[in-house]
Amino acid sequence: MKILAAFIFFTRLPFWRISKVPSEYFKGIVPYWSFTGWLTGGVMTGVLWLAAQILPIHIAWILAMISRLLLTGCLHEDGLADFFDGMGGGSTRERTLAIMKDSQIGSYGVIGLIGYFLLLLMLMWGLPLKLVCVLVVSGDSWSKFCASQLINYLPYARKEEESKAKVVYKSMTWKELSTDFVGGILPLILLLPLNLWPATLFPLLTFIAIYKLLKRRIQGYTGDCCGATFLLCELSFYLGAVILHYVYLRYGNIL
User: Closest Cα partner for 99 from 111, 108, 109, 90?
Assistant: First the structure.
C-alpha cells in the first residue's frame, strides 16, 4: 500500500484509481521513492529512444526532460526553485523557511533553474544514445535513494501543520532502508557499465554537502529540500559519468 502511495504522491498518473490509500500511509512513502525512479526514468528513456530515431539527440533529450516534468507535475523542480530562493535570500533560519514556503519564485530560483536546465541539457550533448538511456534510468533511481536519506539524518524543519504537502515523513526502519537501497542500486547493477560506477560517488558527495548546508542553515529539512537534493544529486551523477566517459575516450578505453 505504501508503494502505491509513493506513486500517487510523486507522479501525476491516476494511481489513486487503483485503490483508496489512507492518509497515514503517505508518511512512509520515502523508502519507495527510488522505485518511482524506475517509472520516471523508464518513461524518459522511452521518449528519448523513440524521439532519437527521427530527431537529433539533443532535441530528443529535451522532449525526454519535458516528459518527466509532465509526469511529476514539476514537483521536484518547484522544490529546487524554492531551495535556491531560500538559501540565496534568507539570512536567518526563520527567514529562509519563510522564503521557501512562499509560492512566488524569486531571482535566485529563476537563475538556479536556468542554470540547472542548461547544465542538464549540455551534459548529455554528444553522448551516444545508448549511454544516455542507461544514465537516465540509473541516475534517477540512485539519486532518489541518496536524497531520501535526508529524513534519516535531519529532523523536519517545520511543524507538521506548516508543511505544504501536509505530510511529515517518518524516519526509515532498517527494513525500509534496505528496500530503498534495493530500489536505488538495482538499475545500476543491471545497466551501468563497471567503468562508470565511480560516478555513483558524486551523488553521495552532493548529498553530504547539502546535508551540512541544511544542518547549518535551517537545522532540518523540508519537502522542497528533498526535491532539490534529488535533482542536484542526479545532476552530479551525470557530471561524474560524463567526466569518466571522456577520460576513457581520451585514453583509448571507448565505452
Answer: 90
